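Q: How would the structure tokens look for this protein?
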Amino acid sequence: MDGTSLFYREVLTDTTCQEEWTEIQLNTGATQSTLQDIKVVEKAGGYCFKNVQLNHNRNRFIYWRTYQDILELSEVCLDFTLYKNNVRYKFSDTPVLNVSITEQDRYVTILVTTVCSLHHIHFPHPDTLADSGANNTNLQNGASNVQATSGGISIDFNESQTFSIFHDANNSFVRDPSSFYVIDTQNAATCAVPHAAISFLSPSGGEAYFALACQSELVLYIMNCETGHATSQPLKENNIMPRLFSNLKNAFTGKSDFSDANHANSLVFSYINGQIYLLALYRDDQLRVWSTTSFQCVSAIECVRDSSRARTQGPQLSALRKINDQSVCAFLSHATKSEFVCIDIHTDAGNSPGLNLIYRKNIPAPLLDLADFAVAESRIWALWTNAEGEFSISNYPLMRGLGISWTTVALEAPPDRYCISNEHSMDPREAYCNYIFQRGKFGREVIAKALFMFHRTNLRLESKHCTLPLLKDQVCQAVEDEIQNEVKEFDVTDDDYLEIATRQWERFYSCCEQYHLKSCQPSGLFILEPIDGLCLVKKNTFSLLRPCETLEHIMLVGEEVDINTVVSTYFAGNERVGEDLVILVSIVAQFERWLPDELKLDIDKRLYRLEMPNVFIAKLADDILAGDPDRELLPSTFLVWIRQKLQAINDMRMAMTLLLDSLRMDNGNPAGMQTNLGRATTQFLSSVGVLFGSHLGLSVLSETVRQITAIKYSICRNLLILQQILIDTYSLNVDMLETIRSHFMPDTTIFLQSYFVMGWIAGTPVNLSAAASLESSIQRLNLLQLTNGSGRIYSNGGKYHVSPLVRVFLNAKGLYTAVSLYADNFKSGENSSTWSNTLLPLTTIVSQLIWPVSFNFIFGEWLFGICQHIIIQDYVRLLSNWCEWNICSRQFVLAVSLLDCGESYKAYELFLQSAKGVLREQFLTDKILKGTPLAKRTEHLSMLGAKGGGGGDALDNNINNQVITQYYLKVIQLFEQHNALDHIISMAQVAIGLLEKSDPQLPMFQSIVFNNHLQLEHYEEAYHSLIYNAELSRRKDCLRQLVITLFNRKRLDLLMHFPYVGLHDEFENIVESRARSLVIDQNEVYDFLYAFHVNNGNMRKASAVMYEQAMRFQLESDTVVSMEKRCASLLVCINSLHLIDRRYRWIAKPVIGLDDAPPQPTPTSTHAVNDSSTLNCGPDIDVLREQVVVLEIKDIKRELLQTEALIRLADHRKDVQTFINAGPQELALILSGCGLYTAALKLANGCEISSLPIFDSLTGACVRITEEGPNEAWAWLQENDLADLPHRNKAADMAWSLLQKLIYDNELENSTRIRKSVVNKMLVLNAFVPQWLYNDYKKANCMELLHLFVKHSRLLEAAELAREMISAMLGAGSEYFSFKHAIAVTNQDMCMPVNTLDLLLYGLRLNADADIEYKQMLAELEDIIQTYIETAQRTAGDKIQMAFQKEQSSQRQQLSLA
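A: Here is the predicted structure in token form.
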């Protein structure tokens, strides 16, 4: 320890998440009866590694504590976290007397002395671990590994370095017989038990020396470290005379206890001139030096100079500590006083084995009880306790220039329960939980023990297996149970309930406080000499003592400050101004002691509420000067005291200027505080390594920042009060008061607010579990390249529940930034590794990173990247009304936070306000222009502007607008992530107002306006937005999007009525494309398109649209619903075509398949086809696909009829899909087969195909109807049109009536095709022809009917018909036959079916012999035929005669005329 620091302060470390202990138990075989009543005082100590120039040794130390037979060892490193660093040894029933740690080249050896055993334990040295890691990673001297990452530079240690030296500790090694020696306890009943011990390892490491002090004996043990064998040697004087004279001396001096001369209280080893000596401090205050080689006393000295006076042993034992190998320090306790005596050891020049002990210094001790002390070259450090059990630490300098008195160290006060109720008016549960858990005041073990004590339950929680959230739930439940136990039998009011709840929570807090105070009770201390610090070991934890800054030192000491020492140390060369500054700060420090805690808390609350400090401080000064006796804020003589102090200040202006400069974190240049870290720093990081990078190191660094910030905040607050009082009381000259009012007070006000914000950062708790769960918000920022993913908060597997904000910042990003800035100073010179050169400068850099009054925005940028919205909003609020630096960046960060919290309206206003900072603040410039072409241009123009003094204003207006619009585009992307569409529109319209009409970005923003109007269902606004879009292609794209959206929203009315100025054809193409892209089953676009064309009077396009829809129904779907829709489409198409001019009543149908293709010439046609054209048929098919077929109305009607037929058929055939492509003829036959005769006839008539097969089928059905059941007959009859038929009771009658009606309706005039077919079918089926059909057919074509009878061998019926027919020819009933007149001279000639009659006669003759009826009919027929022949001959003769007569008459007329 170099001893340059004047004052030290305790820093509490966060040990709530220590690694678990490695438990090792060793049974030495001691005699139980001897050892069971031995009580040993709890002790603690430690060791700090020496070679701190190596990074893996820096800030690294071991501390230990003993209680009875348990030894706990912990290795700590503040730079990187060590794993498996805690080990606990239990020496069964053998209390531990002493522990010493020795550092060798490759090992760290721990020597442990118990009452009955000696142990030496080896562990690998950190250098050994680092060397093994360096062999694998090519690292030298333990330097850290620096790697470039996307987020900057990360510093990682290799795995072997992060392991503690205790990571391989196990049972096997300590149980090795060569590692321990058991002291012979056979004579334990007669020998005293050791009460003091010391151990030492020889420089070679081969031997270990152990000295044990018993009641009247001092024994030295020398152990061979390789074999474990030890030899013992009692150390006593062989000459009787010195003992005799010493007893006489004691008698003369009043000492009657002769055993004091042999009772050693404390022991140390020393290595001098290659020899090992044992120094023993005896109860009689003698210090003797024993040689470990001759085992003789080589020198002795009386530690008390005035040995002639009688002395009474004090209540405390004397103790001896080694300063170095040539000096020791003894603590002597007497009844009247206590003192420290420093003694130097000099070699005797005349006799080389001899040593001389010489007094160096005698130091009176305070009137306190000494608990432990340690000595270094520069100071004595002592741990004291008073009668109330309160501990304190003080030091006394042993070097010049550090003072001449005891200096008390500033220890941290225990938690104050009284600040809980006054802090916030809230529920007791919330208030106490926030204090106990959120602020990390108590460890998990303390809370678990307090819970067990409070609840008195048999179930005890293990703190190492219980997380803080679970522990919090258990505590709340336990307190609530106690509350309910009190109120369950009474009806209590709300106030009574709150009182009971407060009392129970106070009771639980009291339990926590008791265990906390017990766990924080110091056990010992040791000096961290290489790093200028001290470690205070407590029962369950440890804390560190660090050097203080100048202002911190003066504030903590106050009026008791040693001005000369402080000025000579800190202000060398400027002593006069330094003395003035010390006096001024001492006045400010006195205010800190005067001001009540309630007043300080009130000022804090006012600052948190953003009240202006100059206003409420002025009011406070008025209250102070008013001197109200009921509310005395300061002592009544404070003003006199202040004026007396002011008289000692020579230059107030210079003193106050120096004080404000010391408080100013930006070094007077806020604009220069930039942290643009590049690769140039990387090479220095490898040599600096990670400073305070472990969890413990971060806690030390963050706590130091908090402490120094709190001190400087107090200075600013008290200085502002002092300045106001000086102005109000006119305590200085007018010029000085005006300087204070116009210059110093504004700066002090700004500093007060700045340090308050820094204190808020240092003390605000962050829930790590909740902070690590905001991944979605961080990912949204990453997508927009607003963050790079670095600096995130991780929950560390639940180990750390709550941490201060500044510690979280350091762990995530701040430490790397601070170390990088520190490395710039490190490279300029060789700095030592003491905390004055590492911890304090690093604390200053961290404070600068969170200092609000600068261009530096590292902390704000980190907050922005982790999305801690509550913290962001509070941070920006605290800076909102006074800090002008980075105001636009803070507004942007706050806007993003509010947007993520759903407050988009507030965010919108802030985004507009922060737009002007894009060109002026580095944070916004980096976030908005990063990766854009504007980045380099803006940087170049900014540099030119900076040279001209204009900064961002030097940019031309065009670039300015482009940058602003780029900002608006980024903001729009943020709004899009949160679906704040209305604000996107507003922001885009603002950007449009900045852009010129020719700007290429203008259509983009216009499209943004359109898209968001569309999403908000502002369809008319969206239409107008797309119409005014400056780019045609974007207009078309927007129109397509509008059309699709309106179709999806079923807002066809708007689509119908928009005018589509200049986009009419594009609109039709879009709708047609959409119609064709959608499946036809659920496609309403064709209907809309038809309505659109009808609305515009374009019936031709309307008909084409409907036919296309019908065609797609045919091709793409085979369901009945599709058929019905196709039928409706064809009907609409036909209707539309009828409304068109006759010249345009046609539709061009594309050729879909070969069936639709026009006929192609065959090889036999007149145009010969060569072989090549026949083989190469591919191009012909392509030609077919490009052709179209012209369809007229009649063609469409045929398709309609076919579709209707399929629909009817679908009700009777499940396999109707197989007939979709069937022709009309086939389809008509299928319909007939299903009994759908009217539908089949309709199809046949419409398609102009023969209906005879249909009548054949119907005739067959009528003939067979008598054979069918009535239900079956009526079933198919009802499928036909029976409305115009008279009702018949019998199905057969209805069937014949249907046949009759259909024959009458479908038979053409002068045609008997249908009747012939029907009669023919009947005759085939050997059925009788109905009379109505017989008469009708006879009247229409009797000869054809006769032929059918004859053809089907119906001879009797044919003969009857022939007889009637011939009779009619002869004049008997000719009106009932197809001829209208009989044979007569005046009538026309008649035809006689001679061949048919011949066939008939022939048939009758064949059957005449077998059947009399045939014979009779034959005779009758022959008779009437003979009659007809005769009549015909006669009539023919008459006609000839008449014709001749007419001819003659005609000739006579001609002759007469001639």
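The chain is about 50% helix and 15% strand.

The longest helix spans residues 1412-1457.

Upvote if useful.
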